[in-house]
């Protein structure tokens, strides 16, 4: 469960990106966060895994106070939260499988990561994650040979391999064409339903948000202005 209580975030430059946010997200929900550019969507999700720190209020994940985590605890904490970006953030010149393994096996030495000498168990875990997003056949292909949609699915497999309970996605389909965007959204939906992973997704396509998410959170100028089931949203809005 993710809980924001009176959370505010002011950046060092004086911009207030979140104002008195109160929000509870239960395990297994599929939530879309919608709002104009600059509304605070990205700040909201990046506070959850402490890529950004909050300035005021209380933020807990599974009853752990996110602000109080020391650096060692933060590393453990972040392993249960997968993060997906608009730009995929993959290492394009190595294989798909190595991308999945490099970040999901944190205890590996730098040398083993560099040479790709993974254990059989690691490889099986990576291949299973690729299978879940339908790109097992690309395991030994270099990432720069793949389409954008395939690359986003590699990023998704990479987070699955770390066995997360939450996936945060910051505009994951913004750079994809409409057909490919739906393929990737289908993956998010399947992962959410079949694996009981909470999915929080920032998305500026309201139509996709309504089609895929169970709950819509609207944010404007750092404040929550709408929160309800997607089935309640007037399609004309
Ligand atoms: P969205 O994701 O909805 O586009 P953001 O969370 O990125 O919104 O931004 C919210 C506000 O905070 C904007 O005014 C933006 O310019 C500002 N902002 C975002 N990131 C930073 C940062 N790292 N430092 C200072 N201001 C920031
Ligand atoms: P803190 O108050 O703990 O520095 P911030 O939210 O300001 O928290 O920053 C969190 C992280 O985001 C830091 O690692 C910082 O380097 C990074 N960061 C801050 N501003 C920017 C920016 N404009 N662009 C990219 N990263 C940023």
Q: Indicate the mean pLDDT.
A: 92
The helix count comes to: 8
> Can you list the ligands bound to this structure?
adenosine-5'-diphosphate
Instruction: Provide the structure class.
Output: alpha/beta
Note the beta-strand portion: 25-35%
Instruction: Kindly state the number of beta strands.
Output: 10
- The helicity comes to 25-40%
Question: Low-confidence stretches at least 5 residues in length (pLDDT < 50)?
Answer: none
Q: Whole-Å distance between the termini?
A: 29 Å
What would you report as the Rg, rounded to the nearest angstrom? 18 Å
Main pleated-sheet profile: 6 strands, mixed
Protein name: Phosphonate ABC transporter ATP-binding protein
Keywords: ATP-binding, Cell membrane, Membrane, Nucleotide-binding, Phosphonate transport, Translocase, Transport
InterPro entries: AAA+_ATPase, ABC_transporter-like_ATP-bd, ABC_transporter-like_CS, ABC_transpr_PhnC, MetN_ABC_transporter-like, P-loop_NTPase
Pfam family, one: ABC_tran
């Amino acid at each position: 469960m993710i809980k924001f209580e009176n959370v505010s975030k002011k950046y060092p430059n004086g911009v207030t990106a979140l104002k008195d946010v109160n929000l509870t997200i239960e395990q297994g929900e599929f939530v879309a966060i919608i709002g104009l550019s600059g509304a605070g969507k990205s700040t909201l999700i990046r506070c959850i895994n402490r890529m950004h720190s909050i300035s005021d209020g209380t933020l807990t994940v599974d009853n752990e106070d996110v602000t109080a985590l020391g650096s060692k605890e933060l590393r453990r904490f972040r392993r249960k939260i997968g993060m997906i970006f608009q730009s995929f953030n993959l290492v394009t010149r190595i294989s798909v499988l190595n991308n999945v393994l490099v970040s999901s096996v944190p205890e590996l030495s730098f040398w083993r990561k560099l040479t790709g000498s993974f254990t059989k168990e690691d490889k099986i875990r990576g291949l299973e994650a690729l299978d879940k997003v339908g790109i097992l056949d690309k395991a030994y292909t270099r990432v720069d040979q793949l389409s954008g949609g395939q690359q986003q699915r590699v990023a998704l497999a990479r987070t699955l391999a770390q066995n997360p309970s939450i996936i945060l996605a910051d505009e994951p389909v913004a750079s994809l064409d409409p057909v490919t965007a739906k393929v990737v959204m289908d993956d998010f939906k399947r992962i959410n339903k079949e694996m009981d992973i909470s999915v929080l997704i920032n998305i500026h396509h309201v139509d996709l948000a309504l089609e895929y998410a169970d709950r819509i959170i609207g944010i404007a100028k750092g404040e929550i202005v709408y929160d309800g089931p997607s089935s309640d949203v007037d399609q004309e809005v």
